[in-house]
Amino acid sequence: MNNLDLRVFIGILATFVTLLFAVFIFTVKSENKLSNRLFGVFLLLSSIEMSGFFVHDFIPTSLSMIMLKNNNYYLLTPVFYFYVCSVCYSNFKLEKKHLWHLLPFIIGNIAMMPRFYFGSDQVLEEVSKDTIHTWEVIFMHLSMHLQSVFYYVMSLVALKRAKNIFYENHSGNRIQAYKWLYQIVMFWIVIFCIALVKNILKYSDVEEKIFSWSQVILIFSVLLVTCWYILKALNNPELFKGVDSHTKLTKDLLNENEEKGENDEIIERLKVFMDTEKPYLNPSLSIRNLAQQMKIPSRELSIAINHDLKQHFFDFVNEYRIKKAMQLLTDKNQPKLTVLEILYEVGFNSKSSFNTAFKKYTSLTPTQYRKKV
């Protein structure tokens, strides 16, 4: 099988799998409807983009239709960014103000109108002789690459803020969702880099065979990431549950707070409350829940923990959970307690997150700690 056949085969397979998964995303019942719809649209746009690698080999396509298909990419990265925001923030909604994200798509199509969309047969014949060196196509490539860099950076910024909000206000296992989403963003950044190299090769004096292989690698990468995403989604259908984007970080609360001194009284009350009431046993404990139980403002509690104790709320709560787990692991009255039973009892709901946290505090796995002690 030569690289042309391989490109067509993988292109058809990747397009089929992506379309199939898009249909699944649109039809599956989920609490995260907006996230599902946005990712479904992203997959549909991706399948249209990938079809360009093989459809011309089977169906005669006009130059104007090819350019219209190529301009579809202007919608791809904004939709992906919206998807990231919808997963990170539970209160994210599409609003009229988001319409400005259509500007690159509109400008890109306007640039194509004079010669590619509405040009005469003579004009089309002229530009088709050396399409990739026309100013419209060069502008399209440059603007799309700049747009991609912008939206991928914005996606990483959104992730970082959501992660900080989570660490300062929540203690559950949802942090794994942000790590997974970060991996997805990084995978698509890698794919973008591969596409960038492919386009550079297109404008370089390299053999056609090398350029064809770059196309094969690009399509195969998209196929791998899509399949990986499908497996993750099927195994973890309720993995994502975002935080409130209006939640303020501790540094913002400090800027608003005139009294920035130590909250000694709150910290003492907190330590006593944690030891006596053991709120950390609740897997979904948040700083708002804890503040309500202690009957103090959540902003003051947030400053006390995240600033004065110099710990994220996430780490603060997990420290109590790990100490309790260490007691249970060495409790001679309960020697038959399994590690799985212990992790659920102390407030964790995932073995991987429990092992990670336990090793962070003790440098040992729970099993190693039990044997050593």
From TrEMBL:
Record-linked SMART domains: HTH_ARAC
Annotated TM spans: 6-26, 38-59, 71-92, 99-118, 138-159, 180-201, 213-231
Annotated keywords: DNA-binding, Membrane, Transcription, Transcription regulation, Transmembrane, Transmembrane helix
Keyword set includes Nucleotide-binding: no
Hydrolase recorded as keyword: no
GO MF, one annotated term: sequence-specific DNA binding
Protein name (record): Transcriptional regulator, AraC family
Occurrences of domain HTH araC/xylS-type (ranges): 268-372
InterPro entries named among the record's database cross-references: Homeodomain-like_sf (IPR009057), HTH_AraC (IPR018060), HTH_AraC-typ_CS (IPR018062), Tscrpt_reg_AraC-type_HTH (IPR020449)
